[in-house]
Amino acid sequence: MKNHFNQAIVFSFVILIIAGFSGSKFYKGEMLKRSGNNSVLSLSQEKKLESEPDINSVVNSSNQFAFDLYSNLKGKEGNIFFSPYSLSTAMAMTYEGARGQTAEEIRQVFHYSEDIEILRRGYAETINQINKQDKKYELHTANALWAQKSYPFLPEYFKTVEKYYGGKVTNIDFVRDTENSRLTINKWVEEQTRNRIKDLIPQGVITSLTRLVLTNAIYFKGNWETQFPKGNTKEADFKVSADKKVRVPMMFIGGRKFNYTENEALQLLELPYAGNELSMLVLLPRNELSEVEPYLKPDKIQDLMKDMRQEEVDVYLPRFKFETKYLMGGEKGILGRMGMPTAFSEMRADFSGMTGKPDLYITEVVHQAFVEVNEEGTEAAAATGIIMGAKAVLMKKVFRADHPFIFLIQENRTGAILFFGRVMEPAK
């Protein structure tokens, strides 16, 4: 039976890009070793092993965070697009330096394992899988830390981040060269994302009080396993809402078999990329987008995927391209509302694992993403910047009466002024 995967009767749809990491074999030695290309990490010893529990822990936590974040963003108008991997990875490097309530709140929001060794091995193995060579698509990720020069960071913290996350530290001068520091970081992000993520950190986010910026970048470009013929693309209606339609370039491919399933609420289609190691899942509601949202949970998605079968499907999918940017910091910002306000509190944040004392807090989390879907395939990029600032030093109060002043002597219980005076020349 031929199925029609058409947008003509729907208002919107949800896409997920997934990678098949689970069950892969990896090399392990002294976790990570930087290769010639800063965006690629390789393992130092050629010894294969299975490491499903560690990598699955990272994948599951990142996926759960993805659905949690979408739930917090869905009330906003317009398109939504972000990389849960990029956000989770940048925050994992930050979490390595968190302590006490600060650490526990971060762990719960991002669903990290309580076992720090599982977290570390999981990220090391995930990064190596993403950055593996000899693949039919382009996919790479990179981490970097930008630290105020001469600031007393703990060497152990930097060593841990580089060993397990590949985050090499670059010393920079936020205090005296604030703007050039921002431009340097943004340039690195542009290079890692093929210029798709520009000006990640806006002016004013980095200040002379910034002491550390943690960055992650991820870039993907892949062709469809079965491409949409360009000649099939035609202008068609897209129903933005019940009373609004827009004309869009609608791609079409017919008579091909895809993994597909449907129920009373939605249709689910899998579009594989060349190499069949990555694919896009498209969740298309029968009517309203709200019909899909109850299924946006890891276990629900897995249940749907178990029901998928190869079927002949006529696929209509709009060609689209857009960017998004999210400022997520602050105790009442997106991440604060999700359950980690302490990290943004100048009074309460504890990142003593970075410096040995609780003198830093997160001043902002910036996330920016780009996606383009066309007849050939998909290009996507994202970057995250976590900005750490120094807590304001409480100035010692000094009362130095070295100029004329007024004084009085009172009876404390009643407040009665017994004597009143002015001093102009104490020595006279």
Q: Which homologous superfamily in CATH is the superfamily of the domain at 14-223 and 321-390?
A: Antithrombin, subunit I, domain 2
Which CATH architecture of the domain at 14-223 and 321-390 would you pick?
2-Layer Sandwich
- CATH class call of the domain at 14-223 and 321-390: Alpha Beta
Structural class: alpha+beta
CATH topology of the domain at 14-223 and 321-390: Antithrombin, Chain I, domain 2
Tell me the Rg in angstroms: 27 Å
**Number of beta strands:** 19
The count of helical stretches stands at: 9
**Main beta-sheet strand count, sense and barrel state:** 7 strands, mixed
- The ordered H/E elements are EEEEEEHHHHEHEHEEEEEHEEHHEEEE
What is the fold's blueprint, element by element?
Elements: E1 3-5, E2 14-19, E3 25-27, E4 33-34, E5 41-42, E6 48-50, H1 52-73, H2 84-95, H3 100-110, H4 116-130, E7 138-148, H5 155-165, E8 168-172, H6 178-192, E9 210-223, E10 234-241, E11 244-262, E12 266-272, E13 278-285, H7 298-306, E14 309-318, E15 320-327, H8 334-338, H9 352-355, E16 360-373, E17 377-390, E18 405-411, E19 416-423
Parallel strand pairs: 1-14, 7-8
Antiparallel strand pairs: 2-13, 3-6, 4-5, 7-9, 9-17, 10-11, 11-12, 11-14, 12-13, 15-16, 16-17, 18-19
